[in-house]
Amino acid sequence: MQTILTGVRANEEPTIGNFLGAYLPMINLSHEHANDSQINMFVPDLHSFTTPIDHSKFYAQIIKGIKYYMAAGLDVDNPNVHIYRQSRVPAHCELAWILDCFTPFGEASRMTQFKEKSEEHKESVTVGLFNYPVLMAADILLYDAKYVPLGEDQFQHLELARNIAIRMNNKFDQELFTLPASEAEQVKFMHLEKGLRIRSLTDPTKKMSKSSTNEKSKISLSDDPKVAAKKIMSATTDSEGVIRFDMVNQPGIGNLMAIEALFTHRDLQDVISDYAGQTRYGDLKTKVADTVSHFLSDFQEKVANISDGDVERVLEQGEAYANEVADKKLHTVQKALGLRK
Ligand code: ATP
Ligand code: MG
């Protein structure tokens, strides 16, 4: 059985960018493939402090993140659906060390996200921040995951995981790791034209990021729906004076249309047609504000109905499964390297 796998770091409240770019594609794929695939939605909790976080809130954030997966529609009663915490499966770190030793420093140094994040957090650039794409490769390769639904910003890291797998398969055994699908194949598998990139509401040339300290740039899944609506109403647009889908000259407007289409499960082209020739940006903003605030009220109600006990039960099953699969793969790798007979 093939494996489909993804995770969202628990460093901050996830945003609608995470929801649309990672949760939703994964949930859709889980509905489509839970009978022919293992569906692994894990919490990369060890990735969460590559940049500074508030550790006093961390544990609660992890548990809330799991409730979000469940509220988003993951069918946890299906025996092929698994939720687990990375930190409870020690093989992730053990394999990451091994992969480190087969990752050229130059290749890891090309990761643009490291360059961007180390600019942002100049005072705290850690080895962990540099190394996290290799841990991410371990997260994927341990489970032989072929499909990894991700937002557009993570495809470079997926390519690194592919390169590591190719290198180690050539050296040790072509069957050692399943090669994750290429970016083009991943996007096709998600029924998309390209990877998703929801933009910041205050600077639509950049992506929306949960770790941004500018609250107005992002809509978190726990935002009060009224506050979220206000953020949409004051989103940065442009002075072109006509509503067009043009991500180069009007990225703010294009972003709002993309958000509307994704939340209402409509074709982007239909949303674009609705506004063809219109000039009042306020009309589009009011519609999107309404869509997003309704989504948030509904989602937050679902989260409130999931108890900590529900989460514990799901983790117990998921972590038993994850340890079994991951240990088996780790043993195979240890054998190939000569660590074990
Ligand atoms: P951080 O600022 O902490 O890096 P993030 O918002 O980038 O947070 P991640 O935990 O790094 O979130 O990424 C989790 C998943 O969400 C990944 O699949 C990533 O590609 C996706 N994602 C993140 N931001 C966006 C976005 N703006 N649009 C679409 N997908 C996104
Ligand atoms: Mg990120």
Description:
The chain has 341 residues and is of the alpha/beta class. It has two domains: 2-191 and 307-337, Rossmann fold (3-Layer(aba) Sandwich), CATH 3.40.50; 215-303, Tyrosyl-Transfer RNA Synthetase, CATH 1.10.240. The chain has 13 helices and four strands. A four-stranded parallel beta sheet has the order 3-2-1-4. Helix 1 links the parallel strand 1 and strand 2. Helix 3 packs across helix 6, helix 6 crosses helix 7 and helix 10 (251-263) packs across helix 11. The longest helix is centred in the last third of the chain and has 30 residues, at 308-337. It is globular and about 70 Å long. It starts with a strand and ends with a helix. The structure holds adenosine-5'-triphosphate (ATP) and magnesium ion. Adenosine-5'-triphosphate binds at residues 8-9, 11-12, 15, 17-18, 20-22, 150-151, 153-154, 196-198, 207-211.
Compact description:
The chain is an alpha/beta fold and 341 residues long.
